[in-house]
Every structure is written in structure tokens, then in C-alpha cells.
Design brief:
This protein is about 30% helix and about 20% strand. It contains 6 helices and 10 strands. The longest helix is centred in the C-terminal third of the chain and has 17 residues. Bound molecules: benzoic acid.
């Protein structure tokens, strides 16, 4: 009989599942050691594979940018710590890709041989594989709440500029109570939340100019947002 993989995808707004895991940086306890920080928890199918190698090099070369955004990275695959270490050493010593070389991956990479974490986060999807995690990305806020998730197939690498962009967008939504339009980039205008009553709708349109707000209609208003 085919074995069922018991695996549920936790969703936006839920508390991110807690775990203790062995990693390339020692044992980590999530969320206890990450309180007050954003976390990007991401899975990859396997060590020593080409797409994953390009992803790790790209992410590692952006790690300082994520640090500045108060965001820690945690990788995961269903491989051993020895395999992770050997792969990360190979990347540093041998792989040159798109101008990146000598890349040190110093964020923790979970060795999830028992698939405990992968199952908690719905990273093992049996229609794809029951031994390799799909390319999942979880954005977890400083309170440990899942705020966004992305899932990509085994064959296609993720867009790390998009991962950074949506993190910045969510941080600004939290800080300023605004939304962001399609394809928003830091520095562009943001969306003021729509008014909740007829009175506020009229007031919004009447006072928009004075407040530096541009309205295309009463429900669709934009304002500049300076990003430090
Ligand atoms: C890769 O990372 O290259 C890869 C991993 C699993 C399936 C296909 C590609």
C-alpha cells in the first residue's frame, strides 16, 4: 500500500509551528530564539543539485540586506548535516555563478531527515515527491505569525528580489497602515486604506489634496511613503 505523507500547509494568520532542529549552525529552537525578528524559513529539494545551488548562492549573497531588514534566514532539506556541510563547502570552494564566488552560507540549514519540520510546514507534497521538499518559503513576523507563503516546483528557482520586495512591503504595511499596489517597489506610492463609511469617503475626497493624497476615485487613493 502506498504510504500517505501526513503534511498540512499552515496558512496566513496562523502561529508558525514551533520546532527544535539540528542545523549547520547547531541546534535551533524556533520561535524562542527568533522572537522580535522576521524569519524566512525556506525548503529546497536536495543538496548538490544545480537549481538549489543557484538559490543558495543568491540568498547568501543577500543575507546582509535581510539582516538590515531585521530578518533571519533558515534553510531546510531532507538531507543530513554532513551532506549540507559538504555541499556548502563545495559551493564556497568551487562554484562561480553570475559574478558570485567564494560564497559562504552562514545562515542555518536544517537537516530534516525525519521530515518533522517539513511535515509541519507542508513542504512535503506527495503529488510531487515523498522524499524531497518542494521549494516553500514562509515569511514569519516578529510575533511568530505566518504572514505570507510561496510554493514553487522542484524544477524552477525562486525570485529572491520578489522575496525581499514582499518582505519590505509587509513591513511598511505594518509600520504605516498602508497597502501596496501591484508590482510596488520601495519608494513608490502606497495605497491609503479605503474609507469605511459614506462620511469618511466624502471627507477623504474633500481633503485629499491638503493631505498629499491622490485619489483616482473615493476608494482608490495613493500617497507617497518615504522609506528609511
Ligand atoms: C535542482 O535543484 O536542480 C533540482 C532539484 C530537484 C529536482 C530538479 C532540480
Amino acid at each position: 500500500m502506498e504510504q500517505q505523507v501526513n503534511c498540512r500547509v499552515p496558512v496566513i494568520g496562523e502561529q508558525a509551528p514551533a520546532f527544535t532542529a539540528e542545523t549547520t549552525q547547531g541546534v535551533i529552537h524556533f520561535p524562542d530564539e527568533y522572537k522580535g525578528k522576521w524569519v524566512i524559513l525556506f525548503s529546497h529539494p536536495a543538496d548538490f543539485t544545480p537549481v538549489c545551488t543557484t538559490e543558495f548562492m543568491t540568498f547568501a549573497s543577500m543575507e546582509k540586506e535581510f539582516d538590515r531588514l531585521n530578518c533571519k534566514l533558515i534553510g531546510l532539506s531532507i538531507d543530513s548535516t554532513y551532506s549540507h556541510i559538504a555541499w556548502l563547502r563545495t559551493i564556497k570552494e568551487k562554484i562561480k555563478y553570475k559574478g558570485m564566488e567564494n560564497i559562504e552560507i552562514d545562515f542555518p540549514v536544517i537537516s530534516d531527515l525525519k521530515m518533522d519540520v517539513a511535515k509541519k510546514y507542508g513542504m512535503l507534497q506527495e503529488a510531487t515527491s515523498d522524499t524531497q521538499a518542494v521549494r516553500a518559503v514562509f515569511f514569519i513576523d516578529p510575533k511568530g505569525i505566518i504572514r505570507a507563503l510561496l510554493y514553487y516546483p522542484l524544477s524552477n528557482g525562486r525570485n529572491f528580489q520578489e522575496i525581499k520586495r514582499i518582505l519590505i512591503a509587509m513591513q511598511n504595511s505594518d509600520a504605516h497602515g498602508v497597502a501596496t499596489p501591484a508590482d510596488w517597489q520601495p519608494g513608490e506610492e502606497v495605497i491609503v486604506p479605503p474609507p469605511g463609511s459614506c462620511g469618511t469617503a466624502k471627507e477623504r475626497v474633500d481633503t485629499a489634496d491638503q493631505e498629499g493624497i491622490t485619489c483616482l476615485d473615493w476608494f482608490m487613493c495613493f500617497k507617497p511613503l518615504k522609506i528609511e
